[in-house]
Specification:
The complex is a heterodimer. The relative contact order of chain A is 0.18. In chain A, strand 4 and strand 5 form a beta hairpin. Chain A is globular, with a radius of gyration of 18 Å. The longest helix of chain A is centred in the C-terminal third of the chain and has 16 residues. Chain A starts with a strand and ends in a 5-residue tail after the last helix. Helix content of chain A is about 35%, strand content about 25%. Chain A is built from 9 helices and 10 strands. Chain A is an alpha/beta fold. Chain B is mainly alpha-helical. Chain B has one domain. Chain B has a two-stranded antiparallel sheet with strand order 1-2. Chain B is globular and about 55 Å long. Chain B starts with a helix and ends in a 17-residue tail after the last helix. The chains are: A alpha/beta, B mainly alpha.
């Protein structure tokens, strides 16, 4: 049984269809990449799967529970973690406190002692290379650091599934290399990941399977080499005439 | 933290001195009122720490005042009556907090203002219970506690020390919450509610808790005020002053800080009553408006922003 499943998900904003009957299933411990041109509906799909947006029609199931349309805290408690394309930090909190929120209020693997919660938060900051920024205000971080904090915050609730929305976008080549390493580390830990990235090359390095979304529909679903060879992908990215 | 605690204790000791020095009862009354306003500003700040901005704290002050007055006139001891008024304020505040299910930001703030006005109107027309516009008079004075020196609980000095104790309790509650898991939840929801929700935090119960705690402290101040002035009227205890002044004082002193709102409340109130009132009797409250404008334009962090250093970590 898939850990996360979207069945016939459609979203319309007024007369504009952002998603049109999308079926998506993510298996336990699978790393799945989601590609698509700007405006193809990637973030909308993530918002629906993460409980932030109620679809116009269709259903979302997580570990056998129907979570369609939220509220988001239900998805969070059940084990869905999420990062945002544009980081949404707890701006007024310190970096350490930002991670402590998830560590303190998570529903699995809770720590009773404050010292243990702090140690766990520091461990997560170490994992993303922000240990030396623990006392800084989250709002004062650079974009690359904020992206890393996004990941640490998403991991802080000990999720079973991570929805990663363009973790590498806007980063320097070195930052993108670090993102590939993060993916590798998470994969080693058996984390289930559904990730949006703009770079096919980056996703091809880390994903077991890739989906391509175009004009609100999944047009290709397969392993990276098959997706690369697909004429539908070229059509989606380059347009019909350039094929 | 230690230096803050030492400063707090020092101020507490200093504040305990005026009655012993034989201050004129009028000045003791002014200081008592300043302490009560400081406690309300601190309570307002506690709610703001969780995110919601209130334009309607007069609702909780008035609920506490009327609740305590009615209970006291009904035969309950004034101490029990003040506690009951506090609970009425907490329950009423939690009820107002339910508005947060549908409203956020400025809309929620306007909703709190509407609730305060609604309660003031109710107190005016429900004359069988509230006494209508004339209010309730003859509220018993606070009794002398046999196990405390008479100077601490009798007359103006008694009211002074009780207001000071209530201010200490309000500050203590805020300090305790800010360093606890509750404070972490409040701060996370204030900074990024959707992000916090995705980590499993359900916003509504925390918001209701913030409203209830803020309402409790404000209503206890209302109950004490009712037993000091021994009369409650809708236009007195549901006055918009108790909605607007805490907002101005907390913003001027420094939102979300421990001592800023209380210090600003005492300073602004005394400045208004002792300096501006004699000079400009009709316009003495213009000081509050100028203070708010100055903070918005030149000092977004309030007075506390001038000396704010690093932030503490939650346990």
């Amino acid at each position: 049984m898939p850990i996360l499943e979207g069945r016939g998900v459609s979203v319309a904003f007024g007369g504009l269809s952002a998603l049109r009957g999308v079926d998506v299933a993510i298996e336990e411990r699978e790393v799945v990449g989601l590609l698509g041109p700007n405006g193809s509906g990637k973030s909308t799909l993530f918002n629906v799967l993460g409980g932030l947006l109620r679809p116009t029609s269709g259903e979302v199931w997580f570990r056998g529970q129907r979570i369609t349309g939220g509220p988001p805290w239900v998805a969070g408690r059940l084990g869905i973690g999420r990062t945002f394309q544009i980081p949404r930090p707890f701006a007024g909190l310190s970096v350490l406190d930002s991670v402590l929120v998830g560590v303190t209020f998570r529903t699995r693997h809770r720590y009773r002692r404050a010292a243990d919660r702090r140690a766990e938060a520091e461990r997560l900051l170490g994992l993303v290379g922000l240990a030396d920024k623990a006392g800084a205000r989250a709002a004062a971080l650079s974009l690359g650091e904020m992206k890393r904090l996004e990941l640490a915050v998403a991991l802080s609730s000990r999720p079973a599934l991570l929805l990663l929305d363009e973790l590498a976008s806007g980063l320097s080549p070195k930052g993108r290399e670090e993102v590939v390493l993060f993916y590798a580390r998470l994969r080693e830990r058996g984390m289930t990941i559904f990730a949006v990235e703009h770079s096919f090359g980056l996703l091809a390095q880390v994903a077991d399977r890739m989906l391509v979304l175009d004009q609100g529909q999944i047009v290709v679903d397969g392993p990276p080499p098959a997706v690369l060879a697909s004429p539908r992908v070229a059509a989606a990215y380059l347009g019909e005439e350039e094929r | 933290m230690r230096s803050g605690l030492a400063a707090l204790l020092g101020m507490g000791v200093l504040a305990a001195v005026p009655p012993a020095l034989g201050f004129h009862p009028y000045y003791l009354f002014l200081l008592s009122t300043a302490f009560l306003l400081a406690a309300v500003a601190s309570a307002w700040n506690l709610l703001a720490y969780a995110g919601p901005i209130s334009f309607g704290h007069a609702a909780f002050f008035g609920l506490g005042a009327y609740g305590a007055a009615l209970a006291s006139l009904g035969g309950l001891s004034p101490w029990g009556a003040i506690a009951l008024g506090g609970l009425a304020g907490a329950a009423g505040a939690a009820g107002v907090g339910l508005l947060s299910i549908r409203l956020r930001g400025a809309y929620l703030a306007l909703g709190t203002l509407a609730c305060a006005e609604l309660l003031r109107g109710l107190a005016l027309i429900w004359s069988e219970v509230t006494g209508g516009g004339a209010g309730l008079a003859g509220i018993p004075a606070l009794p002398v506690l046999p196990w405390l020196p008479r100077v601490l609980t009798e007359g103006r000095a008694g009211a002074y020390y009780l207001a000071l104790a209530l201010l200490g309790a309000a500050l203590g509650l805020f300090a305790l919450i800010r360093r606890s898991r509750v404070g972490l939840a409040f701060a996370a929801l204030r900074e990024e509610e959707e992000r916090a929700s995705l980590l499993g935090l359900r916003p509504l119960p925390w918001t209701l808790l913030a409203f209830a705690l803020s309402g409790l402290v404000t209503a206890l101040c209302g109950g004490l005020y009712a037993h000091v002035v021994r009369v409650v009227e809708p236009d007195l205890v549901f006055s918009r002053h108790y909605s607007i002044l805490p907002l101005v004082m907390a913003t001027f002193g420094g939102l979300h800080t421990l001592l800023g709102p209380a210090a600003a409340a005492i300073a602004l109130y005394l400045l208004s009553e002792l300096v501006l009132h004699p000079l400009l009797p009709a316009l003495h409250q213009v000081g509050y408006a100028l203070a708010l404008i100055a903070v918005i334009l030149y000092l977004p962090g309030g007075l506390a922003g001038l000396r704010r250093g690093g932030r503490r970590a939650h346990p």
